[in-house]
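Hey, resending since the last one bounced:
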Amino acid sequence: MKNFILIFILLTSLSLLSKTETLVVEGKYQNKNIFVQNSFGTGGIGFCAQEVKVNGKITTDETNSSAFEIDLASLQLKMGEKIIIEILHKDGCTPRVLNMEDLKPKPTFEVLTIAVSPAGVLKWNTKNESGALPYIVEQYKWNKWIPIGEVDGIGTSDNHEYSFQVTMHSGENKYRVKQKGLNSISKASPEATVSSKIEKPTFVIAKAGGEMDFSSETAYEIYDNYGVVVKKGFGKTINIGNLSKSNYYLCFDNSVTEFKK
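The structure tokens again:
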């Protein structure tokens, strides 16, 4: 009976010691290896990490040390390729990946050509993308670059062509595309310009002060004296009846002006 109890305790202890968990890390290959800080296992016996898999395949990386490197460069991965790293480790401890940022796409694209047609179609050709980041399309008006849409980037180093239908205002129009990566690191393209024959709209405020009417449809924003947007949209009429009496700044078409309610 005593022997049975001892065997049961021994088997239970071995089961607890052999219990494992898996740390999963996903990202895109950026021509960088991954470094892992490896603690001792529970009770100070052996090291925490036991095995590493990349995209389902066991690697030959040596995990029996306080820190080790996952050699992605030896796996013949393509730049921007999706990778899933699985680190099998003992229960009660967790290895720490030190350079997670090296698995995140960065805005590395190079613009070969960018132009906008008289019909308002913005086209750009790129190469050397290192991950599938969206292209943010921006238009310069009201003394700033304003996002007007997005196009998903393909994310590989090959040449790619993209297009986006823009809405033009009167006079000269400027456009560009931009990508944002980790920690808001961004990269913008050169500008593309086109002149439109659209007539510049005018506006009037009704005597009762409840509406603002434009001569044609336009994008608009209204700011108060503190720079807070109180109205925003696209159209021919703005309801300003609920604005308090004060001075405001009106952005419309490609102009910024001031009005009093």
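The helical segments are 2-18.

Sorry for the duplicate.
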